[in-house]
Amino acid sequence: MKAFWIDRETNTAKVVETDGRLGDLYRMCHCRCIDIAVRSVAGREFEFVVDDEGLLKDKPMGTAFDRSGMPQLVGSVVVFAPADECGNLTGLTGTDIEVLENNTGMALMSDMTSRTIIIID
After folding, report:
1. What are phi and psi of 107, to 5 degrees?
2. I need a surface site. Which of 49, 62, 68, 83 has the fewest CB within 10 A?
3. First vs last Cα of the chain: how many Å apart?
């Protein structure tokens, strides 16, 4: 299924194919403990799979920021469409991908580095 991956290790954002299984999500988030946070981007809901211990890492890096610039999620994230009625992750549609790409970009951070970020509602 299609997902949108913001990788903190390479500082890139791209559409990827994933099976959505735990091992794949651990690899993509560079961790061994994930959480799923429902957030909206441009009025559309998405499932953000994140490193559950991202704030505990040395130099945590914000990935998702609200419109006022406050960090909401840290570390690598894998974004999916809303879960189905059984709670399973679902793949992104073309419109979902367009919304995510239009709200993702580079930002100059306070430590004078550029990072890939996504803006959430």
Report:
1. -135, 140
2. 68
3. 25
**Of 66, 58, 55, 49, whose CA–CA distance to 7 is shortest?**
49
Q: How far apart are CA 8 and CA 75, in angstroms?
A: 6
The tokens of 69 are what?
């610039």
Q: For the segment 43-86, what is each residue's pLDDT rounded down to a tens digit?
A: 999 999 999 988 888 888 889 999 998 999 999 999 999 999 99
| Amino acid, res. 55 | L
Report, as an integer, the average pLDDT of 97-102: 96
Tell me the H-state helices in the chain.
Answer: 22-29, 94-102
- Domain positions in the chain: 2-119
